[in-house]
Specification:
There is one protein chain. The protein contains 10 helices and 66 strands. Strand 4 and strand 5 form a beta hairpin. It is globular, with a radius of gyration of 43 Å.
Length: about 1000
């Protein structure tokens, strides 16, 4: 069908060339040239006056004698017969990696070019002006290309006057629009139309107009905000029977309205792209009727149901990725013997790969990753395509068994089998994949050895990922010289140690190296630091690496991400490593000061974690040089002195961790400039002074404020109530006095459900135009149920207030009970008085409630027993009185929960409440009396029955003589 369409188009072009000799300057070369017409020459010069000739594109245009013939000007073509200008091509072009283009406006002088049939100004910059209406007066125009010209506003309807137009391209300007397609109806000769990125959101009846373009072959309406047709256009009357190429991707089309219209072109369509739309429901089997269809893209929509069992047998490209398709892959897909590209990524497909796939001998790319496919791969898997297949991705499924041999796959460049359940050894036949560039088999259950024999023939290998196969032993000789130069090496969580892998010294192009958790021990060799000049990411964490990091002369032009955490590295932190854009040296044995931070002229790091080391001295006072720092973690070291004022220069910082040091003094007021702060953790230092009120006024993004175990005094400032995003407030173990603010109910994040995590997005480094995006999920150590726990992936769900071990007085504000999503409340070890708020039962999400060691009085509110989630409760050592409310929840706690309250009584305490004895005896006595009454009446009934029966017989014998005599006679006989 493609051949038929191409022949039709070619014949049409040849016909034009034969009938219109002025289309090419080379036609009738023997004809004499007259030279350009003066008025047309002047028209072009006026056009030039409105153009900024920034790149010298129009330098050949001029009034000089040497430039008199405008037919020789750059971009200008004239008719050999009439000398009229017929073609103007001033499109942008690339020169030395930069595009050169015109800038300015289109002069109406072009109207003088009445024979102009070809105009190409694509790539020019018309600075947001409207498209000139006079272009619609150039009625001889057959080719018009104004794509990517920075026009804005509506497309002029006058373009509909260009009835001879064959080619129209207005794509690439998203600020242009067209409310309807009526003007297109006049372009009856149109064969090519591209309006990509033009706003067509109001062109509701666009399908009706397209149906009128009988000669249209190529239609491009990508990313036009195109609406679905109001009613399906089912009629094929007057519609284009030659439409071959159709791109409607990145719009708002829906299945029910667009499919019926598409089926008008069953016999002609070769290329159909409907990706990134709102297609719903099951994909139609009607694609089988599109007999000429070779390219079908339905990806990135919301299609459901099963994959259709029938498609055009001509298909060479099929993409159904990123939908919600279910069921198994139909066997009939194996009948599409022309198929070269098959994408079924990120659906919900199940079952095994059909055996019919062995019929797909022309397959180049097969991507089935991120589904639920199962089963093992046969030995002859895709054997028919072994000499053509270039890309195979089966990752993120549930495949089992051994990795296939892949014998004879001579063209395979990319092999992705990660995140499955493959077991066994890595087949030796991998060595035969001579074209292999990417080998990724992470997160499986591979075992055995990987030796030089597996890799020695892979000359083109660039990407090696065997990580997260804990039983896989990578046994490569330290003296081995690989035939490849890897750019990415991922061998984390493999058996790579104990010696440092010596073969790495040969790899000079490594951009990403991850050998974390691989059992490496000992000192890093000197050559290791010399191969890091091109590194983008380095991870050697969670090993047993020892020794000192040398102060290398290596410079990092790309500001890499470096993770060397959880080792036994010692000594001072070398200067060169502080050039990183992301640096984690935590959980090592580094010592000394960090004054070298001030020797970095412009710190590129967005993430700096030096926590859990032996660092000491004062914090450096040069933080203004670290403008892009988002996360700073210096916790659990031996830093002393005051927090420097320059910390306020970190205006990008969102997370500050300084806990477990010996910092003193007051919080610097410059910290209020760090308005993006979300986490402030200063636990276990020697900080003192009043808690600054500017925290509430300036740090409005705070989610975590943890000042636990310091020496702060004074009252809690009411300004803290302005922290509407606050979820964790810990001021415990200080010397804070005064009353608990009644405005705590303004902490609205403790009222509503939160997100699961606290994360940050940033770029590395922040000051470069082409910086790398990255992200971080924050962690926080929180006092929980009497112990410290580290939260990370659920930190955002924790809502906690801890004011314990201070000198707070007054009553517990009832407003605290408005915090309906509060998980933990600890007010213990203070001087709080009066009763527990009667509305305490509103805290239905509370898990931990500690009000112990205060001076609370009164009764325990009955609704406290209604909190089902309560797992930790401590009301001990107060002056509470009365009976503990009855309920399964409160009685399930140990008696220590209530001890130290002499006036409390009732279970689980052994002390009985007044009147408990009567209450206990009363029902038993009543039962006993009732039982005794029942027994009395039973015996009375028996006695009365006996008396009545006995006297009834006697009365009968006394009054009936004959019966009495007979009776006594019978008795005598029995005796005898």
């Amino acid at each position: 069908m493609v051949g038929r369409s191409f022949r039709l188009l070619l014949g049409f072009i040849v016909l034009l060339l034969c009938t219109k000799p002025d289309l090419g300057s080379s036609i009738r070369a023997g004809d004499a040239k007259i030279g350009c017409i003066e008025r047309e020459r002047e028209a072009l010069l006026k056009f030039k006056e409105d153009i900024s000739n920034d790149f010298g594109i129009l330098s050949s245009w001029g009034r000089e004698k040497s430039k008199k013939d405008c037919c020789k000007w750059k971009g200008v073509r004239c008719s050999n017969q009439t000398s009229h200008i017929t073609k103007l091509d001033l499109s942008s072009y690339k020169y030395k990696d930069k595009y050169r283009h015109l800038r300015g406006k289109i002069s109406p002088s072009l109207l003088e070019l009445q024979q102009l049939n070809h105009l190409d100004l694509s790539g020019s910059d018309f600075e947001g002006r409207s498209m000139p209406e006079f272009i619609g007066s150039l009625t001889k125009m057959r080719y018009l290309n104004l794509s990517s010209t920075n026009f804005s506003g509506p497309i002029p309807s006058q373009l509909g006057n260009l009835s001879n137009l064959n080619y129209l391209d207005l794509s690439g300007d998203s600020n242009m629009s067209s409310e309807n397609f009526d003007w297109l109806s006049g372009l009856s000769s149109l064969t090519y139309l591209s309006l990509n990125h033009v706003n067509l959101s109001k062109a509701i009846r666009w399908t009706e107009t397209i149906n009128k373009l009988s000669f249209l072959i190529d239609l491009n309406l990508k990313s036009c905000d195109l609406p679905s047709p109001i009613t399906p256009s089912l009629s094929i009357f007057n519609s284009s029977l030659s439409l071959t190429f159709l791109d409607l991707s990145f719009n708002h089309l829906r299945t029910t309205s667009i499919f019926p219209w598409l089926f008008n072109f069953n016999s002609s369509l070769v290329h159909l792209d409907l990706s990134h739309n709102l297609l719903r429901g099951s994909p139609s089997d009607a694609f089988e009727n599109m007999a000429s269809l070779e390219y079908l893209d339905l990806s990135w929509s919301q299609l459901e149901g099963e994959i259709p069992k029938s498609f055009s047998s001509s298909l060479f490209f099929l993409d159904l990725s990123y939908n919600q398709l279910q069921g198994s892959i139909p066997e009939t897909l194996g009948n599409l013997v022309s198929l070269r590209f098959l994408y079924l990524v990120k659906n919900q497909l199940e079952g095994e790969i059909p055996t019919s796939f062995n019929n797909l001998c022309n397959l180049r790319i097969l991507k089935l990753h991120r589904n639920n496919l199962t089963g093992s791969l046969a030995k002859n898997f895709l054997a028919c395509a072994n000499d053509r297949l270039e890309h195979l991705d089966l990752s993120f499924n549930k495949f089992v068994g051994s990795v296939p041999d892949f014998v004879g796959f001579l063209s395979l460049k990319r092999l992705f089998l990660g995140h499955n359940q493959f077991n066994g050894t890595l087949p030796g036949s991998i060595a035969q994949l001579a074209q292999l560039e990417f080998l990724k088999i992470p997160s499986n259950s591979l075992q055995g050895n990987v030796s030089e024999a597996h890799l020695s023939s892979l000359f083109k290998l660039q990407y090696l990922d065997l990580s997260s196969n804990p039983m896989l032993d990578v046994k490569l000789s330290p003296n081995w010289v690989p035939p490849f130069q890897l750019r990415h090496i991922f061998l984390a969580s493999c058996k790579l140690g104990p010696r440092f892998p010596g073969w790495l010294r040969t790899q000079k192009r490594v951009g990403w190296l991850d050998i974390s958790s691989s059992g490496i021990s000992g000192v890093t060799p000197e050559w290791f630091w010399n191969i890091m000049s091109k590194i983008n990411r380095l991870n050697i964490s969670n090993n047993q690496i020892t020794g000192v990091v040398p102060n290398s002369s290596v410079e990092f032009p790309r500001y890499p991400q470096i993770d060397m955490s959880s080792n036994y590295l010692e000594g001072s932190i070398p200067l060169f490593i502080l050039q990183a854009g992301w640096l984690d040296l935590s959980r090592n044995m580094f010592s000394g000061s960090i004054s070298s931070l001030c020797e970095v002229s412009r710190g590129a790091s967005a993430y700096l974690d030096l926590s859990n080391n032996l660092l000491s001295g004062e914090l450096p006072d040069c933080w203004g040089q670290w403008e892009g720092l988002v996360v700073l973690n210096l916790e659990t070291n031996n830093f002393s002195g005051e927090i420097p004022n320059s910390i306020g220069s970190l205006q990008a910082i969102e997370s500050l961790h300084l806990r477990n040091n010996k910092l003193t003094g007051e919080l610097p007021s410059s910290l209020k400039n760090c308005t993006k702060l979300r986490v402030v953790d200063l636990v276990r230092n020697e900080l003192f002074g009043n808690i600054p009120s500017w925290i509430g006024r300036s740090l409005s993004n705070l989610v975590v404020l943890n000042l636990r175990f310091n020496e702060f005094y004074g009252s809690i400032p009411e300004e803290l109530c302005q922290l509407k995003k606050l979820q964790i407030l810990d001021l415990s173990n200080n010397n804070i006095s005064g009353m608990i603010p009644r405005c705590f109910n303004n902490l609205t994040s403790m009222v509503e459900k939160g997100s699961l995590i606290i994360s940050y997005n940033y770029t590395i480094p922040c000051f470069m135009a082409f910086s790398r995006p990255s992200s971080y999920i924050d962690k926080q150590i929180v006092q929980w149920k009497g112990r410290e726990f580290e939260y990370e992936k659920t930190l955002g769900l924790l809502k906690s207030i801890d004011l314990s071990s201070n000198k707070l007085s007054g009553e517990i504000p009832q407003e605290v009970t408005d915090l309906l999503d509060l998980i933990s409340l600890n007010l213990s070890r203070n001087y709080l008085i009066r009763s527990i708020p009667p509305t305490i039962g509103r805290l239905t999400a509370i898990d931990v409630l500690d009000l112990s060691r205060n001076r609370l009085s009164g009764e325990i509110p009955p609704n406290l027993s209604q909190i089902q989630r309560l797992s930790v409760l401590d009301l001990s050592n107060n002056d509470l009185s009365g009976k503990i409310p009855h309920g399964t929840q409160l009685q399930s706690f140990n008696s220590s929960t209530y001890e130290g309250n002499p006036k409390l009584c009732g279970p689980p305490l052994l002390k009985k409440c007044p009147g408990d004895d009567k209450e206990e005896d009363s029902p038993n006595n009543e039962g006993q009396v009732q039982e005794e009454e029942n027994d009395l009446w039973f015996y009375i009934g028996v006695a009365l029955g006996f008396i009545v029966g006995f006297w009834g017989v006697c009365f009968t014998l006394l009054h009936n003589i004959s019966w009495r005599n007979a009776k006594f006679k019978s008795l005598r006989k029995k005796k005898i």
